[in-house]
Amino acid sequence: MIRLLLADDEVLIRGAMAALLDLEEDLVVVAQAADGETAVALAERLQPDLAVLDLEMPPGDGIAAAARLAMPVVLVTRHARPGILRRALSAGVRGFVPKTTPAERLAAIIREVHGGRRYVDQDFASFALSERPCPLTDREMDVLRVTRQGLSIKGIATVVHLTPGTVRNYLSSAITKLAVADRHAAAQAAWEQGWI
């Protein structure tokens, strides 16, 4: 029996996925979470065999949660932006599939990943080939990630533990590198490329 942890902030999708996977004779959902932090805590406590995580869930994203899990992870998403696959694989994600995957196919992918193999959806893999190199530094990406939350410069500075002046410098550099008009456009551009 493969014991699963599911994490998705959309209750209806998470519940439907759990119900469908529980119909499989060799799969059982032992835990469900609405966010990455809860998923990590449940994984540490219950020690499931595999986690199925949504890419777009708070805090951070499914990739951030996957990097903290000591088990195989299958990441599901609606948004296959170019840099996401690279980030996911770097975080140790073993499976990368669209949310449109039929339940029977997802069950088969879970078995493959549990068996030690890797699975990347063909369309996602080809889309990843269009990725352009990221010109941003790690700190610039950190600042842009927090910028997407709609915080002020001071608020961003508090979250990333920098001075407001340093935050302005990182934002100015990112804006220049991405050739956009402001910090919000820079954050959006970085998100669309999958860098944050």
Describe the structure.
With 196 residues, this protein is α/β, with parallel strands linked by helices. The chain folds into two domains: 2-128, Rossmann fold (3-Layer(aba) Sandwich), CATH 3.40.50; 138-193, Winged helix-like DNA-binding domain superfamily/Winged helix DNA-binding domain (Arc Repressor Mutant, subunit A, Orthogonal Bundle). The protein has ten helices and six strands. It has helices spanning 11-22, 36-46, 62-67, 82-90, 103-114, 122-128, 138-147, 153-160, 164-178, 183-193, and strands at residues 2-7, 27-33, 50-54, 73-77, 95-98, 119-120. It is elongated and about 55 Å long. The model has no long low-confidence stretch (mean pLDDT 93).
